TrEMBL record:
PANTHER family xref list: PROTEIN YCEI
Protein name: Lipid/polyisoprenoid-binding YceI-like domain-containing protein
InterPro entries for this protein: Lipid/polyisoprenoid-bd_YceI (IPR007372), TTHA0802/YceI-like_sf (IPR036761)
Taxonomy of the source species: Bacteria, Pseudomonadati, Bacteroidota, Flavobacteriia, Flavobacteriales
Pfam families: YceI
Domain Lipid/polyisoprenoid-binding YceI-like span(s) in chain numbering: 5-174
Family matches, as SMART domains: YceI
Superkingdom field: Bacteria
């Protein structure tokens, strides 16, 4: 069985996050620049290995002032840690099109093992004859596990930001043909 290389198609993929603000509503953001590869030999992708790299400077919450604050040492410290990375360890079939994706997530200089839920969207050939595969990935991380926090209490002592960051990615890969 031959292992195929797949390249992430940025034009047909997105990575977004949500976090509670003042514990009353979500703030949503995106990372606009990222790249990735997947290697797989099996038709069901259970042997797939994923590697995703996110450009921290590409954070976009639709508010330039907030984006600059997120890039600062208070949060992502982008000048010292310009990239986040996910490297998979296992891609396990659960049921139907559902999978668990386990791997190491590195934010700043902290690496933690995380597990994401995946819905495999399937494979299809595009109008140019390229084979594509789509994955809908979701999960949560605790921002404190990755030292993503500033002075985050209100004058009354309440939290400005929730601790859970909800991550969601729609990822489409293009198979590299021999």
């Amino acid at each position: 069985m031959k292992t195929a290389k797949w390249i992430l198609d940025l034009a047909h993929s997105d990575i977004q996050f949500k976090i509670r603000h003042l514990l009353i509503a979500n703030v949503t953001g995106h990372f606009r620049l990222f790249s990735g590869t997947m290697y797989a030999g099996k038709d069901d992708f259970t042997d797939a290995n994923f590697k995703l790299t996110i450009d921290v400077y590409s954070v976009d919450t639709n508010n330039e002032q907030r984006d600059e604050h997120l890039k600062s040492a208070d949060f992502f410290n982008a000048d010292y840690y310009p990239e986040m990375q996910f490297v998979s360890k296992a891609f396990n079939h659960v049921d139907g099109d559902k999978y668990d994706l386990k791997g190491d997530l590195t934010v700043k200089d902290i690496t933690k093992e995380v597990t994401f839920k995946v819905l495999f969207g399937g494979e299809a050939r595009d109008g140019f004859g390229n084979m594509r595969a789509g994955f809908d990935i979701s999960g949560e991380i605790n921002r404190n596990d990755f030292n993503i926090h500033a002075n985050d209490t209100t004058e009354a002592g309440g939290l400005v930001l929730g601790e859970e960051i909800h991550l969601h990615a729609n990822i489409q890969f293009i198979k590299e043909e021999d």
